[in-house]
Amino acid sequence: MMHKYKNSEAKSCLIDKHIVFLGDSRIRQLFYSFIKIINPQIKEEGNKHGNIPFEDKSASIKVDFLWYPEVNGSMRQRIKSWTEGSVAKPHIIVAGAATWSIKIHNGSNEALTQYKINITSIAPLLEKLAKSSDVYWILQDPVYEDMLSESRKMITNEKIDAYNEAAVRILNSSSRNSKAKVKVFSVSKLIAQETIMKSSDGLHLPESSRDMNAMILMNVYCNKIMKPIDGSCCQPQPPLTLIQKLAFCFFTLSIIGYFVISLIHRNNYRKNKSCTDLEIGEEKKPTINTPSVSTLEMLLHCFCKLGLIMTYFYLCDRANLFMKENKFYTHSSFFIPIVYILVLGVFYTENTKEMFIVLFGIATLLFCFAL
């Protein structure tokens, strides 16, 4: 689930932070969508092919866009200056570029080879930065080839895929044996596949898609800090609480105890039945009678069922094994169904014992949902 951050929440998360967007015009658009979360009044002004600063003095937030349309020596030198300590390191670095290399070199294979060499040279620097900062590499979005101008016709989806594959392979290989990793941001590519048809020029994403990418980026960084209730998409797996550990041990012991007592009880029943048959000296036909169940065995059996139910709800609601949807708890949504069932129970007079069991089961399920 993705949390929609308000500007006050974004400022609280990014207070005293320095964020740098490094790349081409697509990164510039992501930069504008990102700072609009902090200050919705910002307009896209300034030199399109130059550096663009932004600062929110109330929260001491500094966000810079640095114009580096190609992965080349200039970009490497900028990144190297952060690793050497001569310049203060940004807390968040968002980088990505490729379409300019395709355009300037007319989509040649030599340009792709040089791109691989250049990104290989900056990968260790990005990895070094990732030890103290959050580093994101934005994969290139697909284009809508039918809408591209003549000067951009060489930018094809086939070329973009080749550049993306090279970036993923090199960045993943450089961080394979390292704890700190450069995070490859691929969600923008997936969004663009569905929305690029709405682009005004076939190259840049529509505003709604850019805003979604910026909000996802905000979730990736801020969810682990702000921990919003409806922002579970990018939070790390929460550790088991003491209550969860105790409950797990209790239900596990209940299941083991139930099977042990059940096995002992049934073995004793068979032995007693065999001895009785031998004393009588007659061969009796097998009967369908089952051994009587003790109170302790019934209690453990109920605990086993409750443990399985609680495990199911934990996997669905607390673990990241299944897709989640936005769910909000309110007192009315919890108590109205209970009151409704209780009212029905008042008028339901037949077989009250079974009705009590049904009501107890429904109440237990509603309680688990509320947790």
TrEMBL record:
Family as reported in the entry's similarity comment: Belongs to the PC-esterase family. CASD1 subfamily.
Protein's name in the database: CAS1 domain containing 1
GO MF term list: transferase activity
One cellular component term from this protein's GO annotations in UniProt: Golgi apparatus
GO process terms (BP): carbohydrate metabolic process
Location within or outside the cell: Membrane
Limits of the Cas1p 10 TM acyl transferase domain: 226-355
Transmembrane parts of this sequence: 246-264, 298-316, 328-348, 354-370
Superkingdom of source: Eukaryota
Keyword Glycoprotein part of the UniProt annotation: yes
Keywords in alphabetical order: Glycoprotein, Membrane, Transferase, Transmembrane, Transmembrane helix
Membrane protein topology class: Multi-pass membrane protein
A family per Pfam: Cas1_AcylT
